[in-house]
Predict the structure of Prephenate dehydratase.
Amino acid sequence: MTAKIGYLGPKGTFTKLAVDTAFNGETKHSFDTIPECIDAVEADEIDVGVVPLENAIEGTVQLTVDYLVHQVRIPIMSEIVVPIQQHLLVSPDFSGALTDVEEVHSHSHAIAQCHQYLHKHLSQARLCYTSSTGKAAQMVSETNKPIAAIGNKLAAKTYGLRMIQEDIHDFPNNHTRFAVLSKNKASVHINHSVQSEKTTLLITLPSDYAGALHQVLSAFSWRKMNLSKIESRPMKTGLGNYFFIIDVNQPYDDVLFPGVRGELEALGCKVTMLGTYPVYQMDV
């Protein structure tokens, strides 16, 4: 049976680009927001949801992490890493100069990735935030106003736009990690070779234990477990209360991870596994 794949849409987003590259033949559905996509997985409306998790320039997509922690707890089954190239898109009828562009539309992360370019070349333009880069491209295609969008080549092709300037992101090594979410591992079929494996943990520290974070990190360190990321996010229960997201560069096993869990729980920490999964590096 063909799996139903959901993604942050509309057509022309980087998420759609990641989905098209990773999945072949599956039915694909777009959603206007990240929570809508995650909720659809929870409600069994789709089998798999693909949402942005982290960008190399702008960091964590906080809405994704917070929603998975506080609202809907769906395991991460895979990770897709995609190179990101941001272009300035205009209507094919636009014949003016960059100084004639009145507005630039895109997702907040895309605009932030192009901050220096916008500051130098489009300082006169008003920055307008949309739910996705694809939505911004769609808006430009539906108006005759002198406005532009930041998006990819797929968006330009999908909405019939012209790339007036290519590769406007501020740093060349621009990649985004996408989380593949599903209740059923059998629904996830990615036709690429695995680059590496990773385990993501959610750790909540005891509020009254001095030096707890140091001891948390020590539990991984003396076992020689390499951490690729550690990030704090507010618990939303009051100032100074945080949880930590930790990425461990190895799959879950029956020796090291139970040992870490036991050591941390003895300190009063709460440990939850958000996923242990393969990582796929895509060329698009």
Summary: The chain is about 25% helix and 30% strand. The chain has three domains: 4-83+174-187, 87-165, 196-277. The domain at 196-277 is CATH 3.30.70.260 (Alpha-Beta Plaits). The two ends are 27 Å apart (CA to CA).
